[in-house]
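Section: Multi-chain targets

For targets with more than one molecule, the full set of components is provided together so that the structure can be written out for the assembly as a whole rather than chain by chain. Components appear in the order listed by the source. The example entry contains two components.
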Amino acid sequence: MLTPDQMSSEALVLYQRLLHTDIIANHKYDLNSRVTKFYDYMADELPEELSTITVIEDEIDSMVEKLRLKHLIVEHPEAVAEGDSVKCKCLSDGKYHDRPILLYPGLELPGAERAEKDVLGVCVGVPFDTEIGEEKVKLVIEEISRQSNTVVNDALVQTEGLKGVATVEAYRDWCRKEIEEKKKEALSEKIAAWFFQNFLEKAEIYEDEQEKQQWAIDRAKLWMEMDRSVTAEDSEKYNAELNERIQDNLEQFRGYIAQIGIANAGGIHYGPEETAARIVESVTLFDIDYSDYEGVMAKVNMTYFMEVVYLECTKEILKANAMSKLKEVV
Amino acid sequence: MAYIDANDKNFHDIVAKGVSVVDCYGDHCNPCRILTPIFEEISTKMDYLNFVKLNTEHNPEITREYSIYSIPTLLFMRDGEVVERTVGVLPKEMIEEYIAALLYE
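Its structure, encoded as tokens over all components, is:
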């Protein structure tokens, strides 16, 4: 996180001002609700589906094919063969007149089946008669494009300039590692979600009823403001929707407290300084004018802010722990 | 690669002339990952067409302009105008049929 000594003078002015803003200075950062007994989710043994990474040969083949496609060479032969791309001009009157006609012999595209056959063997610049759709047309080839039959060999692999990769076999190993890394990354997200679920079920969490109610109400109101499908003018519908959201939120409060607990255990705690610094960081990131204090404050809602920052921190911590757990087993 | 990665800035220039097939995708979209190799295979076989990939997560302006609410979306365009659009993964043959309709109708 951005610290005051890393801030520009304009950013520092905003930071100081934010620190003394009522809703930041007076926010209740330390809730009575808290994790009373931390559950060591890292001690859990990963289920098989979360501890196995398999790379199949097809996936490696697909990466090698990508390399081949990247190095295709296009030639422009004089006469058409199957598999070529052919750019023609229509010499006849009618709806295709002056329109570029593209033919791909061998693909049997609807409307061009006959033309794809008629164009085979025809040379550039020589007019020929055929049909497009149901219209008889006279076409002339302007250009033919043919892709060379590129082969992935050691020389081609070496053009990639990958360190220590000089042969096709070494390239396949490199592909395997790349795929493994991507799968690890994806798996670590699943493990992080699994960790959190276990923590939520097994940690001991004290929920202060008053804080819980207030959080549920604040959060429901916030979402009603953001989702403008129901407005306060229709009070009956608005209240029904609001109550429904409050009920949902009450169930989610435990998760919110669990996130704070995990973040705190990871050494992260949000107070006024961290909050102000984080807002300045966002202002910097989104290139907002540092002097636009009112504009910045109009966007700050502490219920939302605290939820987002703790959610992000928790995700980060759980994912990092998931990665280190994966290293133990994979 | 036989396709162009477009962005908010260059999209209009890329599709302005000729026939374009645009794959609007997202980084975290599984169906998009299924469509990608199909799109790439077609793009390598058909020269003279603009095969374009647009990452909707990184290019919100074009995404909004063309009302792309679901991904993957394929836009079939002629001279900058959308003639047809499809949502979801399509088999190769069906995509080729849409391209044929664009070329020969």
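The two ends of chain B are 28 Å apart (CA to CA).
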